[in-house]
Amino acid sequence: MSDGRAGIEAQAVGLADAIARRRPAQVVVKRIGWRGPLGRLPWRLIAWPRLALRAGSGLAPPWPDIWIAAGRATLPLSVRLRRWSRGRTFVVQTQDPKTDAGRFDLVIPPRHDGLEGDNVLPIVGSPHRLTAERLAADRERFREEIDPLPHPRVAVLIGGRSRAFNLTPERAMAMAREIEALILQTGGALLMTFSRRTPRIARDILLERLRPLPGAIWTGEGDNPYFAYLAAADAILVTEDSTNLATDAAATGKPLFVLKMVGASPKFRRFHEELEALGVTRPFAGTLETWTYPPLAETDRAAAEVLRRYEARG
Q1: How far separated are the first and last CA of the chain, in Å rounded?
Q2: In the Cβ-directed half-sphere of 166, how many Cα atoms lie within 13 Å?
Q3: Residue 3 CB partners (closer than 8 Å, separation 6+)
Q4: In angstroms, what CA-CA distances link 171 with 174, 192, 239, 259, 263?
Q5: Rounded to an integer, what distance in angstroms lies between the CA atom of residue 239 and that of residue 259?
Q6: Domain boundaries, the chain
Q7: Helices (H), strands (E): how many in the chain?
Q8: Residue 226 has what pLDDT?
């Protein structure tokens, strides 16, 4: 359950898929929206949420065995699901809901949010959809595009503007020079993707500078090679603004470098300090290094805990 934004939805679907790998299950994706201006209101002010849903949201009984929701837009529904289902639905909320965690059966926030409680399972980063099988399948799908490229292949995952960070034209130009120098120095290839949050002017600057290099750049058109790039990469660079991008990359077990943005956030600083302490990431300093670490498997750990609590409840 989400509002349909890709980064938010990936968390709920990734956790649901991980549960379904452990128990026979049918995963149903629901995308909801609110009528008129209601979506801009604080979620607590939506008093009759089932009546306020936009047409096409498709939310109705029978209620699921397990409800997994992500994002602020889902909160008016999640906090009522146990009552609507008469306690039969096990309600899971990812991220920090900014309300009493006791209103849910389980809350799964990123550890750097600092949320704790008896029914809270903090994890490193966020749930994701990356699996070895998906990496292999997408790598095969894009084999003709990727196989001719020289090594080392460097995947670069570019985020964008958020509350705490921005990719200004000046930083985009400096970042382009850093990446260009790395590819030319190593004789390798670039595999780059952009986020929907990447400012257009920053994207254009990076494209103009980096397109002549060996490699491939996905700008949002055609099939998405995101997982194929992660699978084919020898090393990964990720901007510091996105928990999802860093968590995805950390699940590969490959050397992961963090690219600086403009801005700062205490929560993100704690997140990146945690990844560094685990041996997952290093700040990007212009050169490639090689190291290993156990691939981050927090989605699997969260799925196991959901099932343990669900089954213990009977």
Answers
A1: 23
A2: 7
A3: 31, 32, 33, 39, 71, 73, 74
A4: 5, 17, 11, 10, 11
A5: 5
A6: 6-124+301-313, 132-283
A7: 11, 11
A8: 97
Sheet holding 189-194, edge to edge: 215-218, 189-194, 153-158, 235-239, 256-259, 281-283
Mean pLDDT of 4-22: 95
Side-chain half-sphere CA neighbours of 56 within 13 A: 6
User: The tokens of 84 are what?
Assistant: 């609507």
**Helix, strand, or coil here: 235?**
strand
**Counting Cβ atoms within 10 Å, is residue 134 exposed (0-12), middle (13-18) or buried (19+)?**
middle
Quick check: helix, strand or coil at residue 55?
coil
Q: What is the pLDDT of residues 95-119, one digit of tens each?
A: 999 999 999 999 999 999 999 999 9
Structure tokens given for 277: 């302490």
Quote the pTM value: 0.92
- The label of the residue with tokens 């989400």 reads 2
Q: What residue has token string 């034209």?
A: 169
**Which tokens in the block code for residue 242?**
């996105």
CATH of domain 132-283: 3.40.50.2000
Structure tokens at 223: 């099939």
